[in-house]
Specification:
Blueprint lengths: L4 H9 L4 E10 L9 E5 L2 E4 L7 H10 L4 E5 L6 H4 L6 E9 L7 H9 L4 E8 L7 E4 L4 E3 L4 H17 L3 E5 L10 E8 L4 E5 L3 H12 L3 E6 L15 E4 L2 H7 L7 E4 L4 H11 L6 E4 L3 H13 L4 H4 L2 E2 L11 H17 L27
InterPro entries: MoCofactor_Util/Proc, XdhC_CoxI, XdhC_Rossmann_dom
Protein name: Xanthine dehydrogenase accessory factor
Length: 371
């Protein structure tokens, strides 16, 4: 949805009507995650719900849609190509007609996304409620209703919790909003601010890490105490470059479980006090660059500083996956690969040597925002 938002806002502001298809549920090797969206107006198409597998069928439905409908796409062993999702997965897609009249809150949602203000859209997708009923939830206000006050209250609580973690997905309730029943399904689409990547050490490796971090959707900050090296010109892909002692800066900013901390200084006077702070935050990932000898020396210094074994166990050092990386760009790829592995629970082995599902269930919430 975030990817198609700029284009559909042009249509919406012009008073045009269009079809919006959103992936709300996935099983097995589904090609796109919940929240992936495709918008259709006439012969114009933006976005994707399946990477190409069922786009044709969704396009036809979206061009004709009059009322919201939940459509399932999958395969059968006998005739896999007939349905179109040849990867073997199953996806549920909510297809809705969108206009200023049917979705008056879309302008506020777009403004919040642009301003990096957290906002969630909760939509009934199946069950005894009105399919397509929508409620928009901000941390401090709401708009719209799902039809029942009790259901609204339950969804508000869940949606705000999901926003805090950057999660998008289905939640199930009873027809009257009961939490222990599951006959009514609500899709909560979170638009959380981008997760943060804090890169410490203004070196060439940091420039490559900042570049790949931005590519993955992070808000990237590069920090170093040396003003001659920490400049915006040297780090054009970073959202901000901060000249400050790393441990002082880290202690001054908000860190949550989606935050990634990359310590690339490999200089004890910088990285030991920095890691003292980092390993006691809620950061989902703390990695430090350096040789194995540097790592052993670093651990000894951190133990002397009073860190516990549990705190030290959170440190990923040497940073990244074992890809044989040598250049700054290759090292950045190995760090990105480790973040993705932790996010989805992959083995890191070549897919050609593994069996079973390609797409894993989510394991950690650190490095990826809702689409």
């Amino acid at each position: 949805m975030r990817d198609v938002l700029p284009e559909i806002m042009k249509w919406w502001r012009s008073g045009l009507r269009f079809g919006l298809a959103t992936v709300v549920g996935t099983w097995s090797s589904a090609p796109r995650p919940p929240g992936a969206a495709m918008a259709v107006r006439g012969d114009e198409v933006v976005g994707s719900v399946s990477g190409g597998c069922v786009e044709g069928a969704v396009f036809e439905l979206a061009t004709e849609i009059e009322t919201p409908v939940l459509q399932r796409y999958g395969v059968s062993d006998d005739d896999a190509f007939a349905v179109g999702l040849t990867c073997g997965g199953i996806i549920d897609v909510l297809v809705e007609p969108i206009s200023i009249e049917t979705f008056p809150e879309l302008g506020e949602i777009a403004a919040s996304v642009e301003a990096h203000e957290p906002v969630a859209v909760a939509t009934i997708v199946s069950g005894p409620g009105q399919v397509g009923a929508r409620r928009v939830i901000w941390p401090d206000r709401v708009s719209g209703t799902l039809g029942l006050e009790r259901l609204d209250d339950a969804v508000d609580d869940d949606a705000r919790g999901m926003l805090a973690q950057g999660l998008t997905g289905l939640r199930h309730y009873g027809g009257q909003g009961e939490r222990r029943l599951d006959d009514l399904s609500v899709f909560v689409h979170s638009f959380a601010p981008p997760p943060r990547m804090l890169v410490f050490g203004a070196i060439d490796f940091a420039a490559a890490v900042a570049r790949v971090g931005k590519f993955l959707g992070y808000h990237v900050t590069v920090c170093d105490a040396r003003p001659i090296f920490a400049t915006a010109k040297r780090f054009p892909d970073a959202d901000e470059v901060v000249v400050k002692w790393p441990h002082d800066y880290l202690a001054s900013v908000q860190v949550d479980e989606r935050t990634v901390i990359c310590v690339l200084t490999h200089d004890p006077k910088f990285d030991v006090p920095l890691l003292e702070v980092a390993l006691r935050t809620d950061a989902g990932y703390v990695g430090a660059m350096g040789s194995r000898r540097t790592h052993d020396d670093r651990l000894a210094r951190l133990r002397e500083a009073g860190l516990t074994e549990a705190e030290l166990a959170r440190l990923r050092s040497p940073i990244g996956l074992d890809l044989g990386a040598r250049t700054p760009e290759e090292t950045a790829v190995s760090i990105a690969a480790e973040l993705i592995q932790l996010r989805w629970g992959g083995s890191g082995a070549p897919l050609s040597t593994t069996q079973g599902r390609i797409h894993h269930e989510i394991q950690h919430e650190i490095p990826h925002e809702a689409p």
